[in-house]
Target: Gamma interferon inducible lysosomal thiol reductase (GILT) protein
Amino acid sequence: MADIRTCAEAFFAFFLAVSLPFCGSASGATAQNSVKVDILYESKCPFCFSWLKEELHPAVEHLGDDVLRKANIVFDPLPFGNAKEIPDGKGGFSFECQHGQSECYLNKVEVSLVLQREAGRSPLLLSRYERAFSLLNADVDYGRHMQI
Model:
C-alpha cells in the first residue's frame, strides 16, 4: 500500500503545482474559482472505504489543510457508486445498489449529510463514513477486519 500512498501524494502534489497558479488566495477564494474534486463511492463497498481511509485521507493530511485552503480545493463526496436508477413510470426513480438495499439507504443518509456540510474536507466525510459503515455493516467479522 505504500506505493499507492506515494502515488496519491505525488498526484496531489502535481495537481496542486498545476492548479495553484490559477486559484485565488485563501482570502479571495470563492466558489467560482475553487477546484472541485468529485469522489464517487459506494456506501458499503469495502474497497471504497479502504481507499478513503488508507489513501485519500492520509494524502490530504500529509498536504495539510492550509495547502488545500490556499489552493481552494473542495472535495465533493457523491455516495452513489455502482447503483442503477430505475424509472418508476411516474416521473420518479427507485435505486438498485450493488451491496443491497441497506447500501441504498446508507447512500441516502450520506447524501443528506453531504448536503448539510459546511466544507467538503475528507476528515468530516471519513468520520461520518466510519460511523455509518460500522452501524450498518451486518458482518461483524468484516468490521473487525477493517478495524472499525
